[in-house]
């Protein structure tokens, strides 16, 4: 198993700090640096900058990846151009993760001016066309969401770029096995990782693919601080938007996306109680403080630094690439560095051995 580091916008890093943390990741023995994407800084350019900085420490630089970029923000051709360029620049050290974002929510579709679409059909269309384009193929394709006629990427040689699918539910996981180079998981316990692998293998068997070639990558969030209560609150706040959603969900939405994912892991009753608190006007901090340690430690780690490596190793079982997603306990660079050091690959290996 490889161990990567995940840095996101919540850390409020400057460009100089991004570069220094990339060098520090290389010094600590991480093999890759990952980022999610929203509507902020362009993640392709961020990956290029991080890779370039890591070359100061590691010949050839660290691998770099996006997990994941919502496809509603770019066309398949734009993904292939940006991803292919970065793959060519880094000598094949870039991994491009794509996902649905919140396209299953009517509000999100209205924001983007999108009609109602099948998230599964949309991701099938994107996987087929983007993977074909970066493989140097001419795209002649008509799907439910994407239509391309005679489009070919103008990069020679073809910038063969692994395309991973952000997947939580059974159908997306099977689609990963059928069409993607890998699956990007999130917020999983080891049992959910094993279940995800089963679904990926089912998709691969459907089309006669070797499932061993389909990699599983996952963010595992870690927050460390000498004050455990401070670490817990910061970690719980990072969990809220996923486990609960930004608004109390409808009955239908509870079965979709991350909310459905957490309910499949057995947290329906607790999340319902937290929804009740939100409906009654509880503050964000009050809701964060009400999260149980059982839920939080089921999918990540908060606490003192000396316990982080062992907890991370246990949560990562079954993955091909386990990514330490940094949650800073305090708004300081030292909080980010504390997580990176507490879960350095050598410490995880020692704690797991």
Plain-language structure description:
The chain is α/β, with parallel strands linked by helices and 353 residues long. The protein has 15 helices and 11 strands. It has an 8-stranded parallel barrel, surrounded by 9 helices. A two-stranded antiparallel sheet has the order 5-6. Strand 1, helix 1 and strand 2 form a beta-alpha-beta unit. Helix 1 crosses helix 2, helix 1 runs parallel beside helix 14 and helix 13 packs across helix 15. The longest helix has 18 residues.
- Which descriptor suits the 3D outline? globular
Mean pLDDT: 96
The run of helices and strands is: EHEHEHEHHEEEHEHEHHHHHEHEHH
Question: What is the first-to-last residue Cα distance?
Answer: 13 Å
- Order of strands across the main sheet: 1-2-3-4-7-8-9-11
Put the structure in a nutshell.
This protein is an alpha/beta fold and about 350 residues long.
Features:
353 residues; alpha/beta; 8-stranded parallel barrel; two-stranded antiparallel sheet; 15 helices; 11 strands; globular
Q: Secondary-structure map with pairings?
A:
Blueprint: E1 2-6, H1 15-28, E2 32-35, H2 43-54, E3 63-70, H3 76-90, E4 94-99, H4 106-112, H5 119-134, E5 139-142, E6 147-151, E7 163-166, H6 170-179, E8 182-186, H7 190-207, E9 215-224, H8 228-243, H9 257-264, H10 268-279, H11 284-290, H12 293-299, E10 301-303, H13 308-315, E11 321-326, H14 333-342, H15 345-352
Parallel strand pairs: 1-2, 1-11, 2-3, 3-4, 4-7, 7-8, 8-9, 9-10, 9-11
Antiparallel strand pairs: 5-6
Helix pairs in contact: 1-2, 1-14, 2-3, 3-5, 5-6, 6-7, 8-11, 13-15
């Amino acid at each position: 198993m490889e161990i990567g580091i995940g840095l996101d916008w919540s850390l409020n890093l400057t460009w100089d700090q991004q570069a220094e943390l990339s060098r520090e990741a290389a010094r600590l023995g991480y093999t890759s640096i990952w980022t999610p994407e929203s509507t902020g800084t362009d993640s392709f350019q961020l990956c290029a900058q991080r890779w370039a900085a890591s070359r100061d420490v590691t010949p050839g630089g660290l691998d770099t990846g996006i997990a994941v970029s919502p496809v509603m923000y770019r066309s398949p051709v734009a993904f292939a151009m940006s991803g292919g360029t970065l793959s060519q620049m880094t000598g094949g050290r870039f991994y491009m993760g794509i996902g649905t974002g919140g396209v299953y929510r009517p509000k999100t579709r209205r924001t983007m001016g999108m009609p109602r679409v099948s998230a599964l059909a949309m991701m099938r269309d994107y996987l087929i066309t983007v993977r074909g384009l970066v493989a140097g193929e001419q795209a002649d394709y008509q799907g439910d969401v994407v239509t391309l006629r005679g489009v070919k990427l103008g990069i020679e040689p073809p910038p063969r770029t692994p395309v991973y699918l952000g997947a939580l539910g059974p159908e997306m996981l099977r689609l990963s096995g059928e069409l993607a180079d890998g699956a990007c998981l999130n917020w999983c316990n080891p049992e959910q990782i094993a279940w995800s692998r089963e679904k990926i293998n089912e998709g691969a068997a459907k089309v006669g693919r070797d499932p061993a070639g389909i990699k599983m990558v996952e963010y595992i969030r870690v927050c460390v601080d000498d004050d455990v209560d401070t670490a817990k609150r910061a970690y719980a706040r990072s969990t809220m938007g996923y486990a609960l959603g930004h608004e109390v969900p409808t009955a239908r939405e509870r079965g979709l996306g991350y909310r459905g994912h957490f309910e499949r892991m057995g947290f329906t009753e607790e999340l319902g109680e937290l929804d009740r608190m939100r409906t009654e006007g509880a503050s964000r901090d009050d809701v964060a403080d009400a999260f149980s340690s059982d839920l939080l430690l089921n999918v990540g780690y908060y606490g003192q630094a000396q316990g982080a490596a062992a907890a991370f190793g246990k949560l990562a079982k079954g993955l091909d690439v386990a990514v330490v997603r940094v949650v800073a306990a305090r708004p300081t660079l030292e909080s980010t560095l504390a997580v990176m050091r507490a879960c350095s690959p050598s410490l995880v290996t020692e704690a797991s051995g």
